[in-house]
Design a protein that fits this description.
By secondary structure, this protein is an alpha/beta fold. The chain has a single domain, classed as TIM Barrel (Alpha-Beta Barrel). Helices cover 50% and strands 12% of the residues. It contains 17 helices and nine strands. A seven-stranded parallel β-sheet has the order 1-4-5-6-7-8-9. It has a two-stranded antiparallel sheet with strand order 2-3. Helix 9 packs across helix 10 and helix 11 packs parallel to helix 12. The structure holds coproporphyrinogen III.
Length: 354
């Protein structure tokens, strides 16, 4: 079976399929009892850095729901951690990092450490690809139909956590630093853009068939800052990947970017635009180039609620995109309280065509 027979990969490359392929952001996670069982065996970073565990966690939703895509189990903050920034995931609090606020803080980070520090992640990708495309001893391969996705955070969103030192609703320290010390902030973004392009190329070499850039906080920026810290570095990353690994699709996800998402789609060169919950799919389809595949965008809280309201809205999103390259997904990640049966109901609803 050739790679291009994989439905998700075909749509990532610009073909329209009916029904659309689907996968869900955070499809491997706390809502799954089999994930919670493994969660207690090791802390989060250890789980990401242990190929046996990361491979198993990535495959859990594939086995249960036969998703069209498997997304590497890791985190966007693994990159700053690999460059030497301290990182801990504190239960109930989230990530805690040693905040970067000055040139001397920045000088302590070393992108040259990333290949060695992320070697276990690349091993996980090699095992995943071999499992997904190989014979099927564990019931997850689905005959070579599943596309393997790598990812990274976008420079701005990763910088938010690096500068703030923890999660936030507004990331005031980060946005303040971008205005107060523009040269320092530009250096941080530039360092992250280069390291991200290199890491994504390494993920592709290890087996990722497409890569996604998560920009969860880009919507906090006004247009001029959005162009400088989101569009410009994303265009640089996409250009590097296109040059060094031609033909590998890049999915962009500038969450909460509103109308700036259209400029992002036109200017960055991403092959696929993932839309957040607030985006009107049909309206956005008019604003982005017709050859850009759209991904999204059911409200994760409707998946939490389940029932007819969920299946009706899921089919409405699917149907309005008919004839256009579209990948069904949520507008943000699966929330931990989601009943696993609702995910099964959603997958059936999207795949059932009358
Ligand atoms: O989609 C997937 O399941 C693939 C793996 C993945 C994780 N995080 C696993 C994870 C991906 C793609 C991410 C991306 C990520 N990480 C983003 C961008 C997407 C988004 O949600 O906006 C961001 C902002 C992060 C940073 C991060 N990681 C936070 C803020 C937290 C704590 C809050 C939370 O959601 O639990 C994490 C931890 C994290 N990343 C967990 C998982 C499964 C939970 C760790 C645990 O307690 O087991």
């Amino acid at each position: 079976m050739t790679d291009t027979a994989k439905p998700l990969l075909r749509v990532l490359q610009g073909e329209a399929l009916w029904p659309p392929p689907l996968w869900l952001m955070r499809q491997a996670g706390r809502y799954l009892p089999e994930f919670r069982a493994l969660r207690d065996q090791a802390d989060f970073i250890t789980r990401c850095m242990t190929p046996d565990l990361a491979t198993e966690i990535t495959l859990q939703p594939i086995r249960r729901y036969a998703m069209d895509g498997a997304i590497l189990f890791s985190d966007i903050l693994i990159l700053p951690w690999a460059m030497g920034q301290s990182l801990e995931f504190v239960p109930g609090t989230g990530p805690v990092l040693g905040a970067i606020r000055s040139a001397s803080d920045l000088a302590r980070l070393d992108p040259k450490r990333v290949p060695d520090a992320t070697a276990p992640v690349m091993e996980t990708l090699r095992r995943l690809r071999a499992t997904l495309d190989g014979p099927d001893p564990i019931g997850a391969a689905r005959g070579g139909q599943v596309t393997l996705l790598g990812f990274a955070g976008s420079p701005f969103t990763v910088a938010c956590y690096m500068v703030e030192g923890h999660g936030s609703r507004e990331f005031d320290a980060t946005r303040g630093l971008a205005y107060a010390e523009p040269a320092l902030f530009d250096r941080l973004i530039d360092m992250l853009a280069r390291a991200t392009a290199d890491m994504l190329c390494a993920q592709i070499d290890a087996g990722a068939e497409a890569v996604m850039l998560f920009d969860s906080w880009s919507g906090l920026l006004p247009p001029a800052q959005f162009r400088r810290h989101v569009i410009a570095p994303t265009r640089a990353i996409v250009h590097e990947i296109r040059t060094r690994r031609p033909g590998v699709p890049v999915i962009g996800f500038p969450r909460l970017a509103g109308v700036m998402a259209a400029e992002y789609a036109r200017e960055t060169g991403v092959r696929v635009m993932a839309l957040d919950t607030g985006a009107d799919m049909a309206a956005m389809a008019e604003l982005v180039p017709p050859d850009v595949t759209l991904q999204g965008n059911l409200d994760p809280l409707l998946l939490l609620a389940g029932g007819d309201a969920m299946t009706t809205e899921a089919r409405a999103i699917r149907d309005v995109m008919k004839g256009r390259p579209h990948i069904f997904n949520l507008g943000h990640g699966v929330v931990p309280a989601t009943p696993p049966e609702h995910v099964g109901d959603l997958v059936r609803a999207v795949r059932e065509v009358g």
